[in-house]
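Fig. S4 source data, part A: sequence.
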Amino acid sequence: MGQADSEGTRLREWYVPRRGPRRLRLLVGLSFYPYSLMNASYVLIGSLIAPMVHVERMAALAVVYLLAVGVSAHCLDAMAPNRPWGNFFSRRQLAAVAAAALVPSLGLGLYLALTYAPLLLMVGAVELFFLLAYNLELFGGAFHTDLWFATSWGFLPVIAGFVVQADTVSVASVAAGLFGFFTAYVEISASRPYKAIKQEQGGGSPLAAKLEGILKGIVLAVISTAAFLMALAFSH
């Protein structure tokens, strides 16, 4: 598939505006903003089930994930050989944007770990490994699978959110992490065939509509869960 076809496929993603300047629409698409917010919501969920919630730590870690995953990981993923976003950014530009987002996220994450939660160093190291191994398809793409995606993108952010508050892992945090894992697994399992149908058929099939509904539903479910827990935590 050519670069122009790749761009056209991506521009038909459900969250990309149908009108407006092409470059702006591509930039919105590259942000994957519904999924980036979903990922940050996992951090909020983990923090909000902790015995004591420190809002500034929760907000700071959410920013870490928005920068590292919402920006850096998506830029690295866009550097794939098939150039899913065409010529919108060159590989050098994508690498520069990825680094510009990753460096402050690592710095902020390191500050949180050294100041409040040393255990966060371990979680952060694992997340950094997956960020590079998954998106750059290192080790022959061994970690570019739905299982590892759900682990790094759904399970670990919940654990990180809890750890930044309590500097430990509990049964409740693991249970919440499993919620993150399974919802992320549903998201990626629906996303892959959805993109394939968009590429092959333009997305007009009933199956594409059904998969799109699943994607919208799972994003809203995770964000709504975080919003509910936040309302519950601060309603007293």
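Fig. S4 source data, part B ends here. Confidence is low (pLDDT under 50) at residues 1-5.
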